[in-house]
Design brief:
- Helices cover 50% and strands 14% of the residues.
- The chain is of the alpha/beta class.
- The protein has a single domain, classed as UDP-N-acetylmuramoyl-L-alanine:D-glutamate ligase (3-Layer(aba) Sandwich), CATH 3.40.1190.20.
- 53% of the residues are buried.
């Protein structure tokens, strides 16, 4: 089956099944993630109280863990939920926000990976490099380093996926996704994604939405990234001259809805590389 056909089947299942996506996420982007999940056809649940996460997670179809606005209680909740999800065969998506800047976040993320709780990691190049190398760089969470050489992002995705035994989606100007053996390179998106809060968090949510309805985590991660990229391109086309990042973010929710209801393939040219 070609990748585009597989993407279409996952979108159809997502709209038909309306999977429940349990988020333990940060308070800065929680509403945005809930909106984007609803726009894609899923049902979001935001629950991070340690006493209830096991019950919530057991009724979910996917679990999204976001390390932004980190806290001790969230650490407890995330580990509990991730352990249950693994036992139940529920896919777990990790968004390692700021691991290149915080030893506590990095150690916690590495623990989750080493215990094989994680199905997909979706992060930028700096975050994924920190996970692969096991080192912080001392800069802030907004310090995003892009690959300096062609193919560097794909190499990192492949190497990290092989090391940790899960799919890595390294996102940026060029997106690279790998399961350690196969790789997918994508060139969708729009520069305005850099001017809003939560574009990465929403992408991780979309990866979770797709992972909830397929056993192919490589395809799920790639499709989550594609939907965000295509949605961004469509949202930019919706804008008028007077509009800026604020209206772009509003239009992005509309665009993800349109992409996942009509499957309008806009500039989609995924390159599967062995």
């Amino acid at each position: 089956m070609d990748l585009k056909t597989q993407f279409g089947e996952i979108i159809d299942k997502l709209r038909r099944q309306k999977p429940v996506i349990h988020h333990i996420t940060n308070y800065v982007t929680a509403e945005s993630c809930a909106d984007i999940a609803l726009a894609a056809g899923a049902s979001p649940v935001m629950a991070d109280e340690p006493e209830e996460v096991e019950e919530i997670a057991s009724n979910a179809d996917a679990l999204v863990l976001n390390l932004g606005t980190f806290s001790f209680n969230k650490m407890i909740a995330m580990e509990k939920a991730a352990m249950l999800a693994k036992e139940a065969g529920i896919p777990v998506i990790l968004d390692p926000v700021g691991v290149m800047s915080s030893t506590m976040r990095l150690r916690f993320a590495l623990m989750l990976l080493e215990k094989k709780y994680i199905s997909i990691v979706r992060g930028n190049f700096s975050e994924c490099s920190a996970l692969f190398n096991g080192e912080v760089d001392g800069y802030g969470v907004d310090n995003i380093t892009e690959p300096t050489e062609e193919g560097e992002g794909l190499k990192l995705a492949k190497d990290a996926a092989a090391k940790f035994g899960c799919v890595f989606a390294v996102t940026g100007a060029v997106d690279s996704i790998s399961n350690g053996k196969q790789g997918i390179v994508l060139n969708n998106g729009h520069p305005l994604l850099e001017d809003i809060t939560g574009s990465g968090c929403m992408t991780s949510t979309l990866c979770g939405c797709c992972a909830a309805v397929t056993n192919d985590m490589l395809a799920a991660a790639a499709l989550g990234v594609v939907v965000m990229g295509q949605g961004a391109e469509l949202a930019a086309n919706f804008l008028e001259k007077k509009d800026g990042p604020g209206m772009f973010k509003v239009r992005l929710v509309d665009a993800v809805y349109h992409v996942t209801t009509k499957w309008n393939v806009i500039n989609l040219n995924p390159e599967r590389q062995n």
